[in-house]
């Protein structure tokens, strides 16, 4: 990494990464008990890692921050750092062990951080079902083809896993979709296990949807 960042700057970027949306200084202070101001803010702005501007709606017009595309890429680089930056602490070292594990998981599943961290958006069951059907049609080669959930889930945008699972279970219950386990368990990756849906005490990895 060519840019040397301070711990507060890295911490702010990781928070913006997880929240995956615009965050104001008051909200940042509430979440992690610090604000992104002064040289820490301008340094990230100058490197085009974080975009900051004065709020037009919040009282007092505090700064609001958004992680840029380059910022997302920089966070992905942070997942490959072998040790915590100085001054090292036990908590910081443990955090970088966790980040390294997260990085390995993403690489095994050929995923990006943006596939994992998405803003919370309320979608109706009908909207989620529509996204599932559109995603299924993109991935299936023939009618009623079997499609892996690990390939389908990234196409559903910001829909939460809990809400998606609820819709999938209802589609299965109503007979509009069929969910089955992968027969070749040795072929399953960590990403396959994470994308599976548990029904009747069994993890299901594949879906087939009846043509409407």
Structure, described:
This protein folds into two domains: 110 residues, Winged helix-like DNA-binding domain superfamily/Winged helix DNA-binding domain (Arc Repressor Mutant, subunit A, Orthogonal Bundle); 85 residues. The protein is built from ten helices and eight strands. The strands form three sheets. It has a three-stranded antiparallel beta sheet with strand order 1-3-2. Strands 4-8-5 form a three-stranded antiparallel beta sheet. Helix 7 packs across helix 9. Helices cover 48% and strands 13% of the residues. Strand 2 and strand 3 form a beta hairpin. The model has no long low-confidence stretch (mean pLDDT 88). It is of the alpha+beta class and 212 residues long. The protein is globular, with a radius of gyration of 20 Å.
Shape, per Cα inertia axes = globular
Mean pLDDT: 88
Unreliable residue runs: none
Task: Give me the CATH superfamily of the largest domain.
Answer: Winged helix-like DNA-binding domain superfamily/Winged helix DNA-binding domain
Strand content: 5-15%
Number of helices: 10
The ordered H/E elements are HEHHEEHHHHEHHEHEEE
Indicate the radius of gyration in whole angstroms: 20 Å
Question: In the CATH hierarchy, what is the class of the largest domain?
Answer: Mainly Alpha
Q: Decide which structural class fits the backbone.
A: alpha+beta
CATH topology of the largest domain: Arc Repressor Mutant, subunit A
Task: Provide the domain count.
Answer: 2
Strand order in space, largest sheet:
1-3-2
Q: What is the terminal separation in angstroms?
A: 51 Å
- CATH architecture title of the largest domain: Orthogonal Bundle
């Amino acid at each position: 990494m060519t840019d040397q960042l301070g711990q507060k700057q890295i911490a702010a970027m990781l928070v913006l990464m997880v929240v995956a949306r615009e965050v104001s200084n008051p909200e940042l202070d509430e979440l992690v008990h610090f604000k992104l101001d002064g040289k820490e803010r301008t340094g990230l702005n100058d490197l085009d890692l974080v975009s900051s501007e004065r709020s037009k709606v919040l009282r007092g017009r505090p700064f609001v921050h958004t992680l840029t595309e380059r910022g997302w890429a920089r966070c992905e680089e942070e997942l490959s750092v072998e040790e915590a930056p100085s001054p090292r602490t036990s908590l910081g070292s443990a955090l970088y062990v966790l980040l390294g594990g997260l990085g390995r998981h993403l690489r095994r599943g050929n995923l990006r951080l943006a596939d994992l961290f998405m803003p919370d958006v309320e979608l109706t069951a009908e909207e989620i079902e529509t996204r599932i059907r559109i995603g299924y049609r993109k991935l299936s080669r023939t009618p009623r083809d079997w499609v892996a959930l690990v390939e389908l889930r990234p196409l559903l945008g910001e829909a939460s896993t809990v809400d998606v699972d609820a819709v999938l279970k209802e589609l299965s219950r109503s007979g509009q979709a069929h969910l089955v386990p992968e027969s070749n368990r040795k072929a399953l990756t960590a990403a396959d296990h994470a994308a599976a849906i548990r029904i009747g005490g069994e993890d299901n990895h594949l879906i087939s949807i009846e043509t409407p």
